[in-house]
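Q: For a teaching session next week I want to show students how multiple molecules come together into a single three-dimensional assembly. I've collected the sequence lines for a complex. Could you give me the predicted structure tokens for the whole thing so I can convert them for display?
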Amino acid sequence: MMKKVAVIGVGLTKFGKHPKVSSRELFAEAAFKAIEDAGIDLKDIEEAFVGSFLPDVLEHQGHIAPLMLDYIGLTGIPATHTEGACASSGAAVRMGYIAIASGLRDIVLVAGVEKMTDFPTSDVTEALALASDDLFEASEGLTFPGVFALMAKAHMDKYGTTEEQMAAVAVKNHHNALFNPYAQFHKEINIETVLNSRVIAWPLKLFDCSPISDGAAVIILASEDVAKKYTDTPVWIVASAQASDTMALCEREDLTTFKAARMAAEQAYKMAGVESKDIDIAEVHDCFTIAEIIAYEDLGFCKKGEGGKLIEEGETEIGGRIPVNTSGGLKAKGHPVGATGVAQIIEVVHQLRGEAGKRQVDGAEIGLTHNVGGTGATVTVHILRR
Amino acid sequence: MEEAERLVKKYFEFVSEKKFMGLKCKDCGAYILPPKSICKKCGSREFEWVELSGKGSLYTFTVIHVAAKRFLNDAPFVVGVVQLEEGPRITARIVGVDPNKPETIKTGMPLKATFIESGGQVLLAFEPEK
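A: Of course. Below is the structure for the complete assembly, covering every listed component.
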């Protein structure tokens, strides 16, 4: 019998540029905030999972989990690094969930961290391309934005999705980020801002892309008995699902969808005993605007091919039928890749606790997070409930 | 001790000789590309190398403007996913089209395989079938 798993503490750094600040310092800031929020002592933590994608390539630092933990004075406990490209910390959340659900642990720290902004853009572009099949795709010159551009073109061809509809995702997420103090950008944009920005990988332009960011996000998970000792407002993780797919796009049957996302979502809905229509809010992986449109479809918020229409009709705005990326999403909150999966959980926790300020969705009870790794070869979906 | 055939290594040896080769399953006849250690259709691990016709059509594409370091000098350039007549798809450079006029590049257009050299390496590419 699996045990119930609660989120009892959350901590986040501001996302954006933190010049010369190393990932261990970002981690420590978020970790101490989460520990304080949970009301636990450092020594109560029994195990830790740290998601991060590129510390070895960019910061020239491997073996980061014990390093991070040591920086906050926590040696001795098991500390494990999880890597699943941009879903590195979504995978960490699932490991933390399993540790508690299995009955092995009562209090676990789960982190995501990434340091990206002190390095030349071409180095970061090259590093991010590690998330695609190097021998068969990156070696032909395919970049990471290029991967999503191939999917955008396929979606445009098959369903008539437009560049304006993709731009609307960026406009919405920039608007939501205005009300998120942790967001990288606090700047309203319009459709023309996106359409007139320079081409990165046609048909995707600069404002279709999430930025390069630094940041850390930490949550404290606890078993039911322990959670009740520390908080009156636990948020329960009622589903934790993950699926995988081919790395190379050329091997996928359909380039207008992420099969791993559909599989993870299906498992998650089943595990939580809910349907897509029951979800009140969702934080989805909008690394590129097309990815949010595909996420609507993969998660069942609309029919296949109707994602463009869903954003156009304002259904995913705060106040709409299914508000998506109230935090500003990866697009405007920022995307320190390894930190994103945990940061998504934190936004849902803020919403379910009713602590989201001006971006609060009234009465939100069930929230979902969708974290896509790289080309979609790893996808995690979590469902949370207050 | 018997060693498994190094399929990926062999594939790129063929590419460096400007030969476009694929694996064919000896049991079900499916073409397997990029190489895999198992036929995903039938589970067989018995293959033979066959020369591919190089004929296909453009399934989807992008124009890379911001390239990774090793291809900075090539940008802008077109990368596409090509549907091969033998069944599999492959990702490759698309040449002989205008990267500055993506609206003139049509998905579904017939293509044939060729090879280009970039960064001291031979790369698989496709060009419009005349």
